[in-house]
Automatic annotation (TrEMBL):
<keyword id="KW-0808">Transferase</keyword>
<dbReference type="GO" id="GO:0051539">
    <property type="term" value="F:4 iron, 4 sulfur cluster binding"/>
</dbReference>
<dbReference type="GO" id="GO:0046872">
    <property type="term" value="F:metal ion binding"/>
</dbReference>
<dbReference type="InterPro" id="IPR040072">
    <property type="entry name" value="Methyltransferase_A"/>
</dbReference>
<keyword id="KW-0963">Cytoplasm</keyword>
<dbReference type="GO" id="GO:0070040">
    <property type="term" value="F:rRNA (adenine(2503)-C2-)-methyltransferase activity"/>
</dbReference>
<dbReference type="GO" id="GO:0019843">
    <property type="term" value="F:rRNA binding"/>
</dbReference>
<dbReference type="Pfam" id="PF04055">
    <property type="entry name" value="Radical_SAM"/>
</dbReference>
<comment type="similarity">
    <text>Belongs to the radical SAM superfamily. RlmN family.</text>
</comment>
<keyword id="KW-0411">Iron-sulfur</keyword>
<feature type="domain" description="Radical SAM core">
    <location>
        <begin position="122"/>
        <end position="355"/>
    </location>
</feature>
<feature type="binding site">
    <location>
        <begin position="241"/>
        <end position="243"/>
    </location>
    <ligand>
        <name>S-adenosyl-L-methionine</name>
    </ligand>
</feature>
<keyword id="KW-1015">Disulfide bond</keyword>
<dbReference type="InterPro" id="IPR013785">
    <property type="entry name" value="Aldolase_TIM"/>
</dbReference>
<dbReference type="GO" id="GO:0000049">
    <property type="term" value="F:tRNA binding"/>
</dbReference>
<feature type="binding site">
    <location>
        <position position="317"/>
    </location>
    <ligand>
        <name>S-adenosyl-L-methionine</name>
    </ligand>
</feature>
<keyword id="KW-0698">rRNA processing</keyword>
Length: 373
């Protein structure tokens, strides 16, 4: 879609002049609804409320792909459900498996767009990294997800179904998806309502029943939404993509810093930790010769010294469409050592899927070039 952006003062208020294009006619996903919402939908149409529990059993325990398989529901109800909702909104285009057990899925949506979802295996369990948007408008200079800009937000149910599809793949080996990270394509807080719907559904005991403390939300730093999320007072983990120790460098890496200044962002983070009592994780990608020197580590330690936090150091994945290179191994360790010298809790993220299209948005950029041009 062609667009012309007017000077940006606020990411949420950016004015965009678009060529007229019909809004895609998206059918709602049944996975968007909580049990109580299903109950309301059912009773409004003259059906018994207990059918909601039967539906949840078919969706999250038996994990069927169609309403026709829900044999204990009346035929008339199944037809009403088919008229209003979709069970399956994702079709697998590509499924890549790494030597380390990482699985990357490229899914096609009902309107033809594609998204990525990743299963990562850890000692503590299986983690699913989900996508919240088709593309992204944040424009980080190191990320393949931003190529082609933002196409649309995902529905809450389309995000839920990513976890369900991965769980169905794990069913083949009697494994369970135990953790979820919202770190895939898109900015989660830019699709706030759908993200919150997703969190409530996957956390529900009748649904996938994934514990709040096993779920992580990551943001590039939309300040008003950080305050809003803090006020939710959830037990969910929270991460900020920081990637730089000062405003000048962060603005170069992440244009969002021009709208939401680093000092204001740090105030929002302090509000979050004070309000929730929980620590925040700072995601810090190491880009060779850009932000990975010892002096950067010293500056970072000073920036976050009074914040209840953990720093997750991420050796950058090479993306052909971007120019950044990997930081040498000894320099990564020197950066970590410097942070720890100043009392900062820091770890180096273990690499996953280095032998496949590991970087976020990379598989979509390679296989669906028409979406990222």
């Amino acid at each position: 879609m062609e667009e012309t952006k007017v000077e940006q003062t606020n990411v949420e208020e950016t004015k965009v002049v678009r060529k007229k294009k019909e809004k895609p006619n998206l059918k709602e996903s049944i996975y968007s609804l909580l049990p109580e919402e299903l109950e309301q939908w059912l009773t409004e149409r003259g059906h018994k409320a207990f059918r909601a529990n039967q539906l949840y059993d078919w969706l999250y325990v038996k994990r069927v792909d169609s309403f026709d398989e829900m044999s204990n529901l009346p035929a008339t109800l199944r037809e009403e459900l088919k008229a209003s909702f979709l069970v399956k909104t994702l079709e697998t285009i590509i499924q890549q498996t790494s030597a380390d057990g990482t699985i990357k899925f490229l899914f096609q949506l009902q309107d033809g767009y594609s998204i990525e979802t990743v299963l990562m295996r850890h000692e503590y369990g299986n983690s699913v990294c989900v996508t919240t948007q088709v593309g992204c408008r944040i424009g980080c200079s190191f990320c393949a997800s931003t190529l082609g800009g933002l196409k649309r937000n995902l529905l809450g149910g389309e995000i839920v179904e990513q976890v369900v599809r991965v769980q169905k793949a794990l069913d083949e080996t009697s494994e369970r998806a135990s953790h979820v990270v919202i770190m895939g394509i898109g900015e989660p807080l830019d699709n706030y309502d759908a993200m919150m719907s997703f969190l409530k559904v996957i956390n529900h005991k009748k649904g996938l029943n994934i514990g709040a403390r096993h779920i992580t939300v990551s943001t590039s730093g939309i300040i008003p939404k950080i305050y809003q999320f803090a006020d939710e007072q959830l037990q969910i983990n929270f991460a900020l993509s920081l990637h730089a120790p000062n405003s000048e460098l962060r603005s170069r890496l992440m244009p969002i810093n021009k709208a939401y200044k680093l000092p204001d962002l740090m105030e929002a983070i302090r509000y979050y930790t004070d309000k929730t009592g929980r620590r925040v994780s700072f995601e810090y990608g190491l880009f060779g010769g850009v932000n990975d020197q010892v002096e950067h580590a010293e500056e970072l330690a000073k920036l976050i010294k009074d914040v209840k936090c953990h720093v997750n150091l991420i050796p950058v994945n090479y993306v052909p469409e971007r120019d950044y290179v990997r930081t040498p191994r000894n320099q990564i360790f020197a950066f970590e050592k410097t942070l720890k010298k100043h009392g900062v809790n820091a770890t180096i993220r273990r690499e996953h899927g280095s032998d496949i299209d590991a970087a976020c948005g990379q598989l979509r950029a390679k296989e669906r070039k028409q979406e990222t041009e």
